[in-house]
Amino acid sequence: MDNNSLKRFGEYIKLLRETEGMSQEELARKSGFAGRAAISALEIGKTNISVDRLQDLAIALHTTPGKMLDIIIESNETALTDGLSAESIAKLKSYAEYLRSQEGTK
């Protein structure tokens, strides 16, 4: 993700965390992150996240990885897809759809 996408994603994580009434420490514990500093780094857009960690975070925040990816795509689609071919954009959207389809099977 580019810096703008990381920042928007971090803002979304913070919003979800605060909506759930969780501290950064509690979210870290529930999602398997090392501690408050790791969550803080995510929330301010200083670090990226792997797909596996995205799923852990989504479960702790009572949402889904697909919804979290949608926020990134919808809030910053132009920057996210800038320079990508139409084929790559379609693959990105297809991956988000795949994640959504997998959420119902778990």
What kind of sheet is the major sheet?
none
| Poorly predicted runs of 5 or more residues | none
CATH superfamily: lambda repressor-like DNA-binding domains
How would you state the average pLDDT, rounded? 85
Note the main attributes of this structure.
106 residues; mainly alpha; 434 Repressor (Amino-terminal Domain); 73% helix
What is this structure's SSE topology?
Blueprint: H1 3-19, H2 24-31, H3 36-43, H4 51-60, H5 65-75, H6 77-81, H7 86-103
Helix pairs in contact: 1-5, 2-3, 2-4, 5-7
Task: Write up this protein.
The protein has 106 residues and is mostly helical. The protein has a single domain, classed as 434 Repressor (Amino-terminal Domain) (Orthogonal Bundle), CATH 1.10.260. Helix content is 73%, strand content 0%. It has 7 helices and no strands. It has helices at 3-19, 24-31, 36-43, 51-60, 65-75, 77-81, 86-103. Helix 2 (24-31) crosses helix 4 and helix 5 runs antiparallel to helix 7 (86-103).
Provide a quick synopsis of the model.
The protein is mainly α and 106 residues long.
